[in-house]
Predict the structure.
Amino acid sequence: MYQIGEFSKLTSLTVKTLRYYDQEGLLSPSARSEGGYRLYSEEDLHRAEQISLLRRCGFSIAEIKDVLRNADSEEDLHTYLSEKRTQLLGQIRRERALVRSIECRLSQLQRKENFAMHYQVEETTIPAQQAATIRYKGSYNDCSAHISALYKAVGGRACGAPFHLCYDGDYVEEGDLEICLPVTGIGKGRGASLRTIPAQRCLTVTHAGPYDGFGGAYKALLDYAKAHSLTLGLPHRIIYRKGPGMVFRGNPNKYVSEIAVPIEG
C-alpha cells in the first residue's frame, strides 16, 4: 500500500488533486491507516493511470465517471475514446467555422465597409422561369448538396443562377425551402422536379459578402416597402449570383447574392 505522498509521485498527480478526486468519488483510496491516512493499492494505481489518460484526452470529470462506471474492458475504453474523438472533430469544425466568420468580420472592419449603406433597392418583375427544383425542410447551409444534385439531374441544361425560394415569413433554423435551378429541360429524375416558377413583381437588392450578413439587405427592403406603402409577400427569393463552388468555398467576402421579395397587390 502507498501513502498519499508516495502515490502522488507514482502517478504524477498532486496531493491536492488526489484529495479532490477522492472528494468527487473518482479515485478513493482502498484503505485508511489507523491514523486515518489514505492508503492506495496497485488497483488504485491502475485506476489513476486510466484517469490521467482520459484527462489528457480531454474528458471532463463527469465523462470520466461515466467511463469508469461502464467500461469493463479495453474494448469498452476504445469505444469511449473513439466517441470522444468524433465529438472533438465536430467541435474543431464548428470552431474553424467560427474563426472564418470572425476573420470575415475583421476584414470588413479593416476596410471600414458597411454593406447596408450601399444597398440599392429596385422594383422589378422577374419573368416566369422553368426550373428543376428540390423542396426540403432544413437550413440554408444544406443548399450546396441540393444545388449539386440539381446540376447532376439537369444533365447540362442549366441556363441561369441557382436560387432559393423561402416560404417562411420569419427566420427559422429549419425552414420550408425550395432550391431551384433554371433549365431548358431536365435529364433523368434523380430526385428533382420540373416546374414553372411564375413571374413576380418584386423588390430586389444585391448583397455582397457572406450569407450571414443578409440582415442588412432585408432591412433595406423592408424600409423601402414601408416608405412606399408596399406590402411584401412570400416566397422570397435568394439568387446566388456568385458563391462557393462545388469543391471549394472560395472567399465569402466576394459572394454576390440577389434577394427578391414579391410585392402583393
About this structure: The longest strand covers residues 129-138. Helices lie at 4-11, 15-23, 42-56, 61-70, 74-111, 143-154, 214-227.
